[in-house]
């Protein structure tokens, strides 16, 4: 945090000359949070991490607003700055309450505190995303911005000789240290803290795959999938393009942020703020469907593949049950299907993955339907011994794995 505090101290000294209402309050609030994190650096909880992010965001917002690239009108910019100040004040109040709370009180209210931290994280992301700071974090641009501020002060200072001497000294420090400082404390504008943020220029669409039919309302355009390549690294990914950046897209982002498991398709990023385009980037490209891969096995090999695939599917479902506590397994006498051809995919390495974007996560299935009418029933026999049984219809052979 030392580098964050140094940067915000510099910003406090220069923000007085910037004719931007509320900017000084943003920088001071960020500095206060950074100092509070420094005081409690031995406690690395979610509250401290939230305050640290807020301090770094404040430094980045200062750089963007003073660089001259933020083009909103004065009234709109003031409203966004006020929203950011309100969020920073709420985070500061949370830090103070946490500091003053005793161990028993903190333990008793830990669930409520966790929900408040989650809410403030979302508010901070919303307030910060507006400023579109991706270009403001480069070191060379920061040096130019700070030099412009010092030139402005030189032109309007009452005591030119004294001010010039002080600012020339400050400029020498800026030239020597600002690049290193900003490299350490810059907020990566291509990342929201959980997932990567992509623009259309970052991805090359290679091939259209299929459309999603789950949750499509009458008259609504479906979500379309593409095989794509990340331009910077050449990594192959799958892009889910939404018809518009609306509620469905935001709900999908909230869902994919919670998921990270080797047997569940997970996202690595989504689109930056764009009024026309909304998309989610999934890791990897899936070269086989479940049924296509199953047809390549025969005899005992197919039997072993079916058992292993069932274990992987159950592992993914058990993970989803742990993430979404409200999800319930249907009763044993009530068969709840998952369509393997549509909702289960196979990665290039042969792993079986659940694709939760293809069904609406209201209730976990207990049966996998695949390959022209046959199905595999999943039974949760024992979490402790990690055992399961598989009934494959129409053969009715029972396999038990202990």
From TrEMBL:
InterPro entries, alphabetized: Adaptor_Cbl_N_dom_sf, Kinase-like_dom_sf, MLKL-like_MCAfunc
CDD domains found in the cross-reference section: MLKL_NTD
GO BP annotations listed: cell surface receptor signaling pathway
Domain of life of the native organism: Eukaryota
The protein's name in its UniProt record: Protein kinase domain-containing protein
């Amino acid at each position: 945090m030392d580098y964050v505090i140094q940067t915000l101290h510099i910003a406090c000294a220069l923000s007085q000359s910037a004719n931007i209402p509320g900017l000084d309050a943003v920088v001071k609030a960020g500095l206060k949070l950074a100092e509070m994190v420094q005081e409690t650096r031995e406690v690395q909880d979610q509250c401290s991490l939230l305050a640290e992010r807020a301090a770094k965001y404040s430094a980045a917002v200062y750089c963007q607003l003073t660089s001259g690239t933020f083009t909103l009108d004065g009234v709109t910019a003031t409203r966004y700055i006020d929203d950011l100040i309100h969020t920073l004040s709420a985070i500061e109040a949370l830090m103070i309450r946490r500091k003053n709370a005793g161990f028993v009180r903190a333990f008793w209210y830990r669930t409520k505190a966790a929900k408040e931290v989650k809410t403030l994280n979302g508010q901070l992301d919303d307030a910060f995303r507006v400023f579109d700071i991706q270009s403001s974090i480069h070191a060379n641009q920061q040096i130019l911005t700070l030099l412009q501020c010092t030139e402005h002060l030189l032109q309007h200072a009452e005591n030119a000789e004294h001010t010039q001497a002080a600012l020339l000294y400050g400029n020498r420090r800026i030239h020597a240290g600002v690049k290193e400082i900003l490299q350490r404390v810059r907020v990566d504008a291509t990342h929201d803290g959980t997932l990567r943020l992509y623009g259309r220029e970052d991805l090359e669409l290679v091939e259209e795959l299929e459309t999603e039919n789950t949750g499509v309302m009458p008259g609504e355009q479906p979500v379309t999938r593409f095989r794509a390549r990340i331009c910077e690294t050449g990594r192959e990914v799958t892009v889910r393009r939404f018809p518009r950046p609306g509620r469905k897209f935001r709900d999908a982002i909230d869902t994919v942020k919670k998921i990270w498991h080797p047997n569940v398709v997970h996202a690595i990023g989504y689109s930056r703020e764009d009024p026309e385009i909304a998309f989610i980037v999934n890791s990897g490209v899936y070269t086989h469907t479940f049924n296509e891969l199953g047809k390549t096995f025969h005899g005992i090999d197919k039997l072993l593949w079916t058992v292993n695939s069932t274990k992987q599917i159950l592992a993914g479902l058990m993970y989803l049950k742990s993430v979404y506590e409200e999800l319930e397994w249907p009763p044993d006498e009530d068969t709840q299907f998952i369509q393997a051809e549509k909702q289960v995919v196979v990665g290039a390495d042969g792993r079986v993955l659940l694709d939760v974007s293809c069904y609406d996560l209201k209730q976990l299935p207990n049966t996998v339907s695949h390959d022209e009418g046959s199905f595999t029933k999943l039974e949760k026999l024992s979490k402790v011994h990690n055992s399961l049984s598989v009934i494959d219809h129409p053969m009715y052979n029972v396999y038990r794995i202990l």
